[in-house]
Structure formats: C-alpha cells, structure tokens
Write a structure and sequence with these properties.
The complex is a heterodimer of chains A (444) and B (498). The longest helix of chain A is centred in the first third of the chain and has 29 residues. Chain A has 444 residues and is of the alpha/beta class. In chain A, the strands form 3 sheets. Chain A has a 4-stranded parallel beta sheet, with helices on both faces. A two-stranded antiparallel ribbon of chain A has the order 1-6. Chain A has 2 domains: 105 residues, Response regulator (Rossmann fold), CATH 3.40.50; 286 residues, ABC transporter involved in vitamin B12 uptake, BtuC (Orthogonal Bundle), CATH 1.10.3470. Chain B is α/β, with parallel strands linked by helices and 498 residues long. Chain B is built from 17 helices and 22 strands. In chain B, the strands form 5 sheets. A 6-stranded mixed beta sheet of chain B has the order 6-7-8-3-9-10, with helices on both faces. In chain B, helix 6 links the parallel strand 7 and strand 8. Chain B starts with 10 loop residues before the first strand and ends with a helix. Classes of the chains: A alpha/beta (444), B alpha/beta (498). At the A-B interface, helix 1, helix 12 and helix 13 of A face helix 10, helix 11 and strand 18 of B.
Chain lengths: 444, 498
C-alpha cells in the first residue's frame, strides 16, 4: 500500500541528496558571519588604492618606498603598487617584502643615497610597524595604506584552501571507508595503516635510495611499497572476514594493533626525516594555487563516484551491504566484493599515509592516531548508513567538509579543544539521529 | 459464563479512517466481532487488513472513527493500551527474544519482581497456560530452538497470560504444516469455547471456510461486505476480494512436454536431502510438495548451488554441470525464486531497478560499466508485461506490496532467460489477482519450452498447476504422481506423511 506515495518519497530523496549540502552551506554562512572582522588591507586591490592615493596627495614627482610583509597576498600588493606608481611617473626608490628590520635597512639605504622619502606605500599590517619614527624625515605619518576592509576571516581564500588541504587526507581515506561501510562492514585499521604506509615508504626511500638525494623513480617505488603493504593489510582483513567469518570489527581492530606495532618496529620508534624534495612535493606543494592533496582528493572522488554509481562493482557493493544473502543468490560474488572493498580501503589509507608524511616531511610511526574515528565520523555525517546498502561517495566528501568547517570555525572563534570534541561528538550523534528518523519515515 | 447480560458486541469498530502520506489506507471501515466468534478478515494485499489490525494493536492511531469494547469506547493509543483493553495481536513476525525460553518470553516485561524474578512461579504459570491450550511446548530451551508452530503457541500463550478477550492472528498458518494447522484450529475452537473472539487473516481460502463463522472483506481500504461463512461460496469470496470475477483459479494450459532437460542423480546433503534423483522435461511444471521440513527447499538449494552438496550429479540437456555456487547455477541457466523474498530475493533498501539488474549485470553492462539506458528500458518492458505497480523505477523494493515484490523478483529471473526456473512457494502471501498473473506467466514460460519446478504447500495449487508431482518426506522422494488430473489432496497427503 506504500507504492502510491510519490510525494514524501521525493522529499526524502531531496533531503538525501541535498540535505547535507544545505547543512554545509549554512555552516559556512554562519561561520562567515561570526568571523566577520576588519581585515588589514593587502593584496592587489589595496596596492592600486594606495598608489592612487599617493599620486593624488604628492604628485607624480615624488619618491616612494613600497613596504609589505611576507604573506602571499603581500606579494601582489607590492607588485601592483609598484607598477601603478611607476606608471604614474613616481620614483619607487625601494620595494620591500619582508620583516620590519628589512624595511628599516631599505629605508636607511634610500636615505643614505640622498633621496628624500615623500611617502611610504604600505599594507595595513606594515603601516603599523614602529620603525618609521626612527627616521626624522619619514615618520609614521608618511605611511599610506588602504582602509581596512570588513571581511570574514573564515572566508579568506587562504583559510578556505587551508581547510580543504587539511580535509583532503581524511576525505581520501574516507572514500575507502565509505565503500566498506556500504558493504555493512567497518575498518578500524585505517589510522594505523596511515602510519605503516608513511614509515614503510620513508624507510624504503632512506635505505634503498639516498635519503634526500633519492631520484623521482625510486621515490615513486617507495610510495607504491607503502600503499602496497597497506593494500595487503586490506586483503588480509577481507580474507579473515570472508573465509574465516571473523566480524569486521574484530578483524580490523586486530589489524589496527598489528599495523601500528609494525610501523613502530620498522621505524625503531623514530620519525624518519631525510626525504627528498620530490616526496614532499606530493603533500606540500600547490599546483595553480591549489594544494596538491586537494587536487588528488577531487580526482579520487570523481573516480570513486563513477565506480560506486555506474559500475558493476558498485552495484555489487551496495547489494552485498543491503542483503548479502539475496546478493549471493543473485549470483553476486559476495566474498570477492568484500575482499576488494577492504583492499581498496587499505590502499587508500596507505595513500593517505603517503600524503600526510609528504606534507610533514617525515615518516612518523605516530601518524594517523585516531584517524579511523574522524574518518568514520565523516562517512556517517555524510549520510552513509552503518547498516550497509545505503550511502553516497559525495555524501562522505560533504561529511568530511562539515566536520572540517566546524573544527576550523571553532578554531577561529577560539573555542578550546575540549569543547570542540564535545561539539563534534554531538554532530556525529545528530547525523545518525537524522538517519534513524529518515529510516523510521520510510519503513512500514 | 457471562454474569451480566450485555447485548453489545465484544468489539465494534466503526467508520475507521487512516491515511498515510499519499495514500488512504482505510476509509470508513466498520467491523463487528462477538464473543466466541471467529471472524475472517479477507482482502488482497494492500486492501488495508494490516493497517486495520495495527490500529487494533495500538500500533497505528486512526484519523477518525471509534473503537468500542462491550459498547464502551476505548482509546488504543499504544500497544500497552490495546493489551489493557483485552486485545492480543499475533503478527506474522513473532516478537520473541530468541535467547529466552518460552516462559521467559511469555512474562517478558511483566516479571513479578521482588529482588529476583520468581522463576519457578513463572515457569509453572506458563505450564498451566500451555495445558489450557492442550499443547506440549518444551519450556526450558531457548525460543530459537522451537519450531515455528511452537513459537506461535508461545505467542498465543503470551496473549492469554495477559487475559485478552480477543485475539487477532495475521496469517498464522503461513509457515505451518497441515498437521500443525489442524492443531492450531483445535486451539482456536477451544478459545472460542472460552468466549474469546478471534479475528483471523489468511490467504488460504480452504482454511477460511473451515474455521470462520463470519467473513468480512476489505478492498482498497474500504469495507465491501460481510456474510456468515456458511452463506458464501469460494467463488463469491474471490470476486468480492478482487472486485471482478475470476473464472478459473488455476488457469493451467498444458504445454507440449518434450525430452528431459534437468536431470538430478543421487543428490545428498546430511539428513535433509537423502539420495534424491529426478528429472524435469521441456515444457513441464513439476510440482514438488510435502510437509514443511520435508527437504524440498533444501533440495532445490542444492541444485541452485546455494548450499554445497555432499554427493550427487546435476545435468542440463545432457551436459553434467559443475555447480558450486549460485553464480555457477545462474550461468548454467538455472534460477531460483526463493521462498522468502524479503530475506533472500530482494535487497530491500535498494531500488527495484537495481534489484532487477542484479543477476543480469553481465548483459546490462559494458567493460564493467552499467548501461543505464539499456537497463531502464529492459526493466520498463517487464513493468509493462508483468503490470508491476510502481510510481517510478527508483522506488525502494521495501515499499512494494508482496505481489509487486514477487513480480520484481520474477522480472530479474525472466531477464536471465534461464532454462530451468525453480519457484519456491511462488504465491505465498500474494493476493488472488497477482497469483493469477503468476500462473499465467508460468504457462507462458512452459509454452516457450522452459522447465519449471514449483514447490508449494498449497495442495490445490499443486494439483491445479503441475504436470507431474513429486512428494517428499524426510529428505527423500516418497512418491510420484503422473496423472495429476485424477489425483486428490488425500493421495498427496498420504505420500507426504508416508
């Protein structure tokens, strides 16, 4: 009698698809409002404004020093301000991007060369430096900076990129976890596998290569060794679960202990530091201004989404989680699907370990502690049911970001770490509650 | 027996209305039950029977209408309120805790506690209850070790221990053997004698005419009629339920029967299947019957590779098959429509189209990627030809009625184009209209040269649809009936009891 119920079904589907996105957007909006602050002026626009003001006040025959700090937007401030001033015919005697001492030395030099300084074009932060008053002929009053702008600290592009970069590692591991949970399993070993992979790769690069001098080829082999060992850990999990019938919780709990122990033994409990630049590029560098881990995350999510929604394997995974017996009797190779899923989860945890150690520049056996909990939380918040058979890959991405945004927002608002844990616990509970209520709504 | 003269009926439900979002489940349904009366509540799946008894059990609150007991209105706002009002409901799925014994289950939640539960007292009170029912149920073993029939008796005893005045039973006979059903009827007679009113729901028409005093029929959430059972014919009842006349309950069309296709030799598995050999021919429906537990399902699961066999050989069209899993069997052209579609036939939390595609992904994909357009059109062809009633292909399998679920399972096997189709209780829990459609489909399949093995406990169905009948008892085939037209139910029962 439930078959003629299109309307609530559609609502449920809508909530399923977009509810979490909506939550994320609301969070972003809320934190944007809550962290709305006067932002010290810098960047290209501030540079142009300052140049215009100086030309208006001092004319085009004046001599100017351009001063800024070391942050990325400061560079564009320097470039824009200098270009605009020179275009107007103003003499730019010095352009300084650095610490106050650097600026002081530059001003001294300009004055020694016999120039007089009419104005100092500065970013908001640089204008507050106390170095200018040391020079009688200069003084802070000669500093020109653009008016501060009102802008949410949360929504500053560096902060957003920072959040994305920090989330990427969890999100990458969460892909594998989503697949495992969709098959009604769980994998507690991912955190330890992160450490195992990081240590194994670092040890390989140290011993087989030449430490920091290791070439890209050996470095790639090292990464593959790290991921491969973790994939084998996943195979072991899968085989134990399917062939010996040990519950996933227990199997992966054991793997969590064994992998952590192995990582500690391999590294002699030390953090391995000597890693080549090509290795730190993976997690540390950026391409087109976007951190590499974020790129990797986006690509992997695209692939995983297609795999889970469009391929035979994806269909099988959902069927196994929804009803393993019905799947088996429909000809689904249930055991094989489960082994593959745990293998993928292990390999992705291994990849997470490579990215993390590359970001930190060291292979540390303490990496990834408690990662499994953050990753499971991301999957659950993303709407995947722990009962199996339901869930979406992109839901997990949203879930990971919801958690990351809450953490970041609370950091910006100076909420303490203990309070943050309490809030995150409540968020996970809330997500499961929503799932339960939805279930109650559709089950009859 | 009754000290005060009270002319009001035991239970009177009037003008009950209940709607769920998007569907009017009950509209103005009225029902009247007297003391010591057995009322059969009839209707197709989706007619509103379940909703009606759930309102009685306090699981649903009606939107409108009144419920009165002994003429006094009652408010059944929760299952507890229903029990206090004297209504016991035994749902199809039992609510027993598997690890607890019969008597622990009976008194669950109502333990008379001092510091500790008085176990001896509860146990002896349970024994008295079973004595009152005239049955013998092992008291001290966990309920999960009890047979379905015994578990049902525990449920009945539980209701009686709560001093109920009426008992609602939803398909109590569905999982029982004929002997167990007979015993159940004896208990119902005893309860009647004690003045308890009984509402009995079943799809088995024979039973209804056997046990019911009056019959109330629902259709599409509406009351369509009632009558004393003695004044209604089987034909009339079916027509009332379906809303149109069905000329022939079993529309058997014999197909041309050819050579042997599936040949099974010496199949064994432990004590459940013992040295079974038989064959199925082209265009034949082979009925496989026997008591529940005779090994019928276990036998076909061996053929399908769902369980591993100890010994035996399976051949199709003269070729010996190496079947070690369901996957192997499906590839070889054998499929099994399982007895329990919810736990074995469907992935309830996934949509019907995905369920349809599950065994057919090989045909519906290219290089491991599902061809969604192909999949959609293949499924919609079955939606039309089997008249599956779904709002859209993304409907979750869970939200379908029994008949429509069964059709989705059928569609997935039809798309396989298997040569041998094994149907295990294909019409259990399915309404008359959908049953008829499934019989027609079986005719079509045999006309196309397919072979069908049909397991059924309903003897009229076995006699009505089979070309040949095999009867099993304790894991062995104890009889074969080739001349189905002149066979009788008694003859089959004789072989089944052996």
């Amino acid at each position: 009698m439930n078959e003629t119920r299109p309307k609530p079904q559609r609502w449920a589907a809508f909530a399923n698809n977009y509810g979490m996105v909506l939550v994320l957007l609301i969070l972003i909006a809320a934190f944007s409002v809550l962290t709305l602050e006067r932002q010290s002026s810098t960047g290209a626009d501030a540079g142009r404004v300052v140049a215009r003001d100086i030309v208006n006040a001092h004319g085009s025959s004046s001599t100017v020093v351009v001063v800024a700090g070391l942050k990325p937007p400061d560079e564009s401030f320097l470039r824009e301000a200098t270009d605009a001033l020179e275009a107007a015919g103003v003499t730019v005697a010095a352009t300084v991007g650095g610490r106050p001492a650097d600026a002081r030395r530059a001003i001294e030099r300009v004055l020694q060369e016999g120039h007089s300084i009419d104005a100092i074009a500065a970013t908001g932060d640089a204008a507050r430096w106390s170095i200018y008053d040391r020079f009688e002929s200069v003084g802070n009053s000669r500093c020109v900076s653009a008016a501060p702008t009102l802008w949410p600290t949360f929504a500053k592009s560096e902060n957003i990129l920072n959040v994305a970069n920090q989330t990427a590692i969890y999100a990458i591991i969460a892909i594998g976890m989503t697949m495992v949970i969709i098959t009604a399993g769980i994998d507690l070993s991912v955190g330890s596998l992160v450490a195992l992979s990081a240590v194994a790769a670092a040890v390989f690069i140290r011993d087989a290569g030449d430490g920091t001098e290791t070439g890209a080829g050996l470095m790639i082999v090292g990464c593959c060794v790290g991921m491969g060992i973790c994939a084998l850990g996943g195979v072991f999990n899968g085989v134990m679960i399917t062939r010996l019938g040990i519950p996933p919780f227990i199997t992966t709990l054991a793997m969590m202990l064994m992998a952590r122990g192995l990582a500690r033994r391999l590294s002699d409990e030390l953090s391995i530091q000597a890693l080549p630049a090509s290795f730190t590029w993976i997690g540390g560098a950026a391409t087109f201004g976007i951190p590499n881990p974020v790129f990797l995350m986006v690509v992997l999510y695209g692939v995983a989404h297609v795999v889970m929604s469009r391929t035979v394997f994806g269909r099988y995974a959902y069927a196994v989680g929804g009803n393993a017996e019905a799947a088996r009797l429909s000809g689904v190779p249930v055991k094989r699907v489960i082994v593959v899923v745990y293998t993928l989860c292990g390999a992705l945890a291994g990849l997470g370990g490579i990215v993390q150690s590359s970001k930190l520049g060291s292979g540390d056996p303490k990496l990834g502690l408690m990662f499994e909990l953050d990753v499971i939380a991301a999957v659950v918040v993303g709407g995947t049911s722990l009962m199996g058979g339901e869930g979406r890959i992109f839901g997990t991405l949203i879930g990971a970001f919801i958690i990351a945004v809450i953490k970041n927002g609370m950091n910006l608002m100076k909420v303490g770490a203990p309070e943050q844990q309490i809030v995150l616990g409540a968020v996970v509970l809330l997500a499961v509650l929503v799932d339960t209520l939805k279930r109650r709504g559709t089950a009859h | 027996m009754v000290n005060t003269v009270n002319t009001a009926p035991l239970l009177e439900m009037s003008r009950i209305r209940k709607s769920f979002p998007g569907v009017q489940a009950l509209s103005d349904v009225s029902l009247r039950l007297h003391r010591g009366e057995v009322l059969a509540l009839m209707g197709e799946n989706g007619a509103g029977k379940s909703t009606l008894i759930k309102t009685l059990g306090g699981a649903h609150r009606p939107d409108a209408g009144t419920i009165a007991i002994d003429g006094k209105p009652v408010d059944l706002s929760s299952p507890t309120a229903a029990i206090e009002a004297g209504i016991g409901v035994i749902y199809q799925e039992f609510n027993l805790i598997p690890a607890l014994t019969a008597w622990e289950n009976i008194f669950l939640g109502r333990e008379r506690t001092g510091l500790l539960v008085d176990r001896a007292d509860e146990r002896s009170r349970a024994a008295v209850l079973f004595e009152r029912l005239g049955v013998d149920v092992p008291l001290d073993i966990p309920s999960r070790l009890l047979s379905i029939a015994q578990q049902q008796l525990v449920e009945i005893a539980k209701a009686l221990s709560q001093d109920v005045r009426m008992l609602v039973m939803d398909e109590p006979s569905a999982a029982l053997t004929q002997q167990e059903v007979n015993k159940l009827f004896a208990i119902i007679h005893e309860l009647k004698r004690q003045g308890i009113g009984i509402i009995y729901i079943s799809h088995r028409l024979d039973e209804i005419f056997n046990i019911a005093d009056t019959i109330t029929v629902l259709r599409d959430g509406r009351y369509v009629g009632d009558a004393p059972a003695s004044e209604m014919t089987r034909q009339q009842l079916i027509e009332l339920m379906v809303g149109r006349s069905i000329e022939n309950e079993f529309p058997k069309q014999a197909a041309e029967i050819g050579d042997a296709r599936l040949v099974v030799k010496g199949l064994c598995r432990g004590a459940t299947v013992r040295n079974v050999s038989f064959e199925v021919r082209r265009g034949e429906i082979l009925g496989l019957t026997g008591l529940v537990g005779a090994g019928r399902t276990e036998l076909v699961r061996l053929i399908f590779g769902a369980d591993t066999r100890d010994a035996g050989q399976i051949a199709l069209d003269g070729q010996v098959l190496n079947i070690n899993s369901a996957r192997d069997a499906i590839r070889a052209g054998i499929c099994l429509l399982t007895e329990d579609r919810k736990s074995q036939g469907l992935v309830l939390c996934r949509c019907v189209r995905e369920n349809f595609a599950l065994p057919n992904v090989r045909q519906l994909s290219a290089f491991g990627v599902m061809q969604q357009r192909h999949e959609r059109s293949a499924f919609s062809a079955y939606v039309d030809s089997l008249s599956i009633r779904i709002p859209h292909q993304q409907q979750l399998a869970r939200n379908l009625s029994g008949g429509n679920q069964q059709k989705v399972v059928l569609a997935k096997w039809l798309q396989q184009n298997a040569e041998v189709l094994i149907f295990d209780e294909p019409t259990r829990g399915i309404d008359v209209g959908a049953k008829h459609e499934i019989y027609q489909l079986m005719n079509d399949l045999t006309a196309r040269g397919k072979s069908i093995i049909m397991i059924s406990s309903e003897l009229p169905e076995v006699l009505g649809m089979s070309d040949r009948i095999l009867v099993m008892h304790e894991g062995r085939i104890t009889g074969e009936i080739c001349d189905v037209a002149s066979a009788t139910q008694e003859e089959i029962m004789q072989l089944a009891i052996n």
